[in-house]
Specification:
eight-stranded mixed β-sheet, alpha/beta, globular
Length: about 500
């Protein structure tokens, strides 16, 4: 892929010079231009400020002339730096010739792209390339409203990376790759990675991100949604952080999908089923409309394609005014002419009013291709804290779906279970009361769920270590509490099923 520019955005480095990218990577690592190196140099407050697009603390922390300070000023803060200082750190002539750097004045050079260190899940030192000033959004907006601008890694990107199932696979598809962060993650456990984007500039930047991070090149394809994928191509893993913003019109390619309402997310989910291999996962971030007279859960269930299990989690809901303000600020419209800002705000509310939208939900959608006669669809709201990464939690959810689908009550009673690690019991009641009003089991990992159980459920869970069958445990509890063991066996499987479904218990086999 040759040089790509888009309207008035700066020309990009050549993606054909793998040798230069390798030398640049070695120089960056040699100067400790890594996530850990930056934290050590800048300190936590200045490092965190960078994620908010605030640069003053980092400028103050880099007033010296060490190699790392030079690189932070040049690449992160986008300041012109004397040629001689850069030549001490980087292969400056190679970087000028291949377009990573450009001349600025008589004796200074400047970066043409933002290069941001990013720590991989296994301690890898990666580098995410993005357009200048667009590494993240931040309170001040993205820094550019050019249609084809390519952003770096933000909260949505890291959320998707954290929830993705990371089992080894033959093929992975990153749909709408942007700066390439999901393709970079996928390259660690997929033999073949395909990355698509409607924006050719994004594909070029993805190639740079992969090369500079020392990752294998991906199969890069231009086009919208599944258009670049042949009808007979399937994948073991599909991931997408799509342009999910529900907006009036398509001003910004990176966020506005160009379809009405939440149609882009719906289309993406509905078309994914035919692109999945047996047992394959498709994982998306999405926005969806809450429409008057309609249950949002029913809306999302209607999106799930045939032949797929689904787990859909709504993490946040905003009313239409909050939502409009969030994305107007994201584009920096709040800093423009007040009358223009008001007109844009009006246009957003007109759009929502026309569609009878009262709020917008945000969350995750995971599909898994299944041969089951009756696929499982779970739609839930979970705004509470979680512990990332959740990829293993997502995989375990679908394992439990398979187990419960194949197990009637008799099979549950014959089964052996273990209490999942780091589950604690809390007793809730009035101070000084002899017996608790109820007992709560709480997870300290993954989804961090909590569920009420009765004394039998609490006693049962506490004894589960995989050695005795569920039926044997219930018989012992019945004898202990003086209850008819047959009745206890009849009424308890529903509670066992719920504890397994929510991840408190796991089959020991």
């Amino acid at each position: 892929m040759g040089d790509v520019s888009h309207t008035s955005l700066s020309p990009l480095p050549s993606s054909d010079r793998a040798d230069v990218a390798a030398r640049l990577r070695d120089a960056l690592l040699g100067a400790s231009f890594t996530a850990d190196g930056l934290l050590d140099l800048l300190g936590a407050p200045a490092y965190a400020a960078l994620a908010r697009s605030e640069t003053v603390p980092a400028l103050r922390a880099t007033r010296g002339d060490t190699p790392l300070e030079t690189l932070v000023r040049l690449l992160l803060l986008q300041q012109p730096v004397p040629h001689a200082r850069v030549a001490d750190v980087l292969p400056v002539q190679d970087c000028l010739e291949s377009g990573w750097l450009t001349r600025a004045g008589a004796d200074e050079v400047a970066a043409t792209v933002d290069i941001r260190p990013y720590g991989g899940p296994g301690g890898e030192d990666w580098f995410i390339v993005s357009d200048l000033g667009c590494a993240v959004g931040g309170a001040g907006g993205i820094g550019s409203r050019e249609e084809g601008v390519v952003l770096g890694v933000g909260g949505a990107s890291t959320t998707l990376a954290g929830i993705t199932v990371r089992t080894p696979v033959s093929s992975a598809l990153d749909l709408g790759t942007g700066s390439g962060i999901q393709a970079l993650h996928a390259a660690q456990h997929a033999t073949r990675v395909t990355a698509t984007d409607l924006n050719p500039r994004a594909l070029h930047i993805t190639a740079l991100t992969l090369a500079l991070s020392g990752a294998p090149a991906a199969d890069l394809r231009e086009g919208s949604l599944f258009e670049p994928i042949a009808d007979d191509e399937t994948y073991d893993l599909i991931v997408s952080n799509p342009p999910f913003v529900i907006s009036p019109g398509a001003r910004l390619t990176y966020r506005d999908g160009g379809m009405g309402g939440d149609d882009l997310c719906r289309t993406l989910v509905q078309q994914a089923g035919d692109r999945l291999s047996d047992g394959g996962y498709a994982q998306f971030l999405a926005n969806w409309q809450h429409v008057e007279g309609e249950e949002w859960q029913d809306r999302l269930r209607s999106w799930v394609p045939r032949g797929c299990d689904a787990w859909i989690v709504q993490r946040e809901v905003q009313d239409v005014t909050q939502y409009a303000e969030l994305w107007l600020r994201d584009a920096g419209d709040h800093r423009e002419d007040p009358a223009e800002y008001q007109a844009r705000y009006d246009a957003w509310l007109d759009e929502f009013e026309a569609r009878k939208v009262k709020a917008v939900g945000f969350g995750w959608i995971t599909l898994r291709r299944t041969a089951a006669a009756e696929p499982s669809i779970t739609v839930e709201e979970w705004p509470h804290s979680i512990e990332q990464p959740l990829g293993e939690t997502v995989r375990a959810h679908f394992d439990r779906v398979d187990y419960l689908r194949a197990s009637d009550d008799a099979a549950l009673l014959a089964g052996h279970f273990r209490l999942v690690a780091e589950v604690v019991q809390e007793q809730v009641g009035l101070p000084g009361a002899e017996d608790p009003e109820h007992v709560v089991l709480r997870q300290h990992r993954g989804m961090r769920r909590a569920t009420k159980v009765d004394t039998v459920g609490a006693g049962f869970a506490g004894v589960c270590d995989g050695t005795l069958s569920a039926g044997r445990i219930l018989d012992a509890i019945a004898q202990l509490v003086g209850e008819d063991p047959v009745l206890l066996r009849d009424r308890t499987p529903a509670q066992i099923r719920l504890l397994v479904e929510q991840g408190f218990l796991e089959p020991a086999e």
